[in-house]
Amino acid sequence: MDFLHPEQQAKSRIEKADGSFSKEYSKLAKHSRFSQSYADLHARPFPVSAAPIRTSQLSFLHHDSDDENSEVVSQIDEINHLKELCQRYSIHPPQESDACFYQNFGEFEVRWERHTEFSTYAFVVHDSSPAPFEFPPIGLVPIDWLQAIPGQVIAAVHIDALEGDGKRPDREVLRQYFEGQRLIGSKLHDGAATIWSALRLHSDNFNRILLVNNTLNECQAGRVLRALLEIEAYRNMTLLAFPLAQEVSAKVSQMEAQLARLVEYHDGIRSAINEEEQLAELSKMAAIIAELIARSRYRFDAGSAYYQMVQSRLEELQEQETQELQTMAAFIDRKLSPSYRTVIAAKRRLDDLAERVDRASDFIRTRIDMAIETQNQALLKSMDRRAQMQFNLQQTVEGLSVVVLTYYVLALCGFLLDAADDLDFGISRPIAVAGLLPVVLSIVWLLSRRLKKRLRKNT
What we know:
Blueprint: H1 6-14, H2 34-41, E1 53-61, H3 75-89, E2 100-104, E3 109-114, E4 118-125, H4 143-147, E5 152-163, H5 171-177, E6 184-188, E7 193-197, E8 207-213, H6 218-238, H7 241-266, H8 272-317, E9 319-321, H9 328-422, H10 429-458
C-alpha cells in the first residue's frame, strides 16, 4: 500500500472486504445544532405549483397588546385546533412540537405556520374558479372551525393565480374582480408574470391579489406566491407600531416642554430645598420614560424588522410598471415608509429625552452636592471657632485652677503655721504665708505645665 497513489491509499483504507465503503467518518462528534442547522434551511418551504392556483390566507395575532384582557395564544392551543380539523377529515395530525403544518385535506390544502407574534393559516386549491375570487378556498373550510381559530385576525388576503394567454387584459374588466376599486399593478421578473390588486378590504373583509403567470415555472411561481403572502402579513404587522409611536410622540412632546421649564427654572433658584423638589420631579419623569421605553421598545424594534422584511420581499418581485399603473412597491412604500419613519423618530426622541433627563438630574445633583459641601464648610468653620473658644476658655480655667490650687496649698500651710505658733517657734504666720505664696504658685504652675505636656505627648 505504501507504493500506491495517495488517492488509492485513501480508497483502500475505507473499502471493506466486500467492496462497500465504510461510513465510520460519519460518526464524528457533532454539535447539538449540527443537524438542526441544515433542517432549518428547508423549514417553511414555498408551495411548488404552477397556475392555476387559488389561495386564501389569514394571519392571527397571538396576543393583542392594546387589550390587557387579551389572552396569549400558545402553540399547544393552535396544534389542538388543527388536530380537531384533522380528526374531521381523518388526516394525520401535527405534533405538539411542530411550528408548521402542511397537509392535503382533499378539497383543499392547509398550510399553517407559527411565527413569533402571529400565525398564518393558508388554504390552497390547485384549480381555477369561473371568475377570479368567485369561489375562494376559505369557503371550503368548515365555518365553525374557522370561527374558533384562537387569536385575532391581523391580515386576510385572497390570491388567484391564472395562466396567461398572452393578451393584454382590459383594465375595466379587471376592476370588476376588485369591486370597482382603483387598481395598482406591475410586471414581475421582466414580464414573466403580472399582478393586480387594490390593496383594500372588499365585501368579505379580504384583500385581493390577481397573479397572471406568463412564463414562470412551478418553483418561481411558488416563490412569488409566498412573497405576496408574506408582504400582506408583514405589512400589517409593521403598522402595529404606528399608533403606539403616535402615542409615545405626544407624551414625549409634553415631557420635553416640561423639561424645558424645569431647566429654565433651575437657572434662577439657589435653595437646596427647591432643587431637591425639582430633582424629585425629574426622577418621576425618568420613571415615566423608563415605563414608555419598556412598553414600546419591543414593538418598535419588531416594526422595524417587519418593515425590512416587506422591503426584502418587494425587491424579490422585481416589479416594473404596466398599463401606467402604480406598482405595489411604490404604493406600499408611499404608505408604509411615513409610518416607519414615525416609529423610528418616536424611538429616537424617547431615547434622546431619557438622556436629557439624566443629564438634567446629574446637573441638579451636582448643584445639591455643591450646596451641601458649602454648608459643610461653613459648619466646619463654625466648629473651628467653637473649638478656639473652648481652647481659650480652657486656658482661662487652667489659669484659675493654678490660683485655686495655690490657695488651697497655702491654706494647708496655714494650718502648719498655726501649729508652729502654738509651739512658740517664733514664726509669724502672715509673713510666712506671704513668703510661701510665690514659691507655691511657681510649683503649682510648673506641675500643671508638665502634666499638660505629658497629656499632649500621649495623644
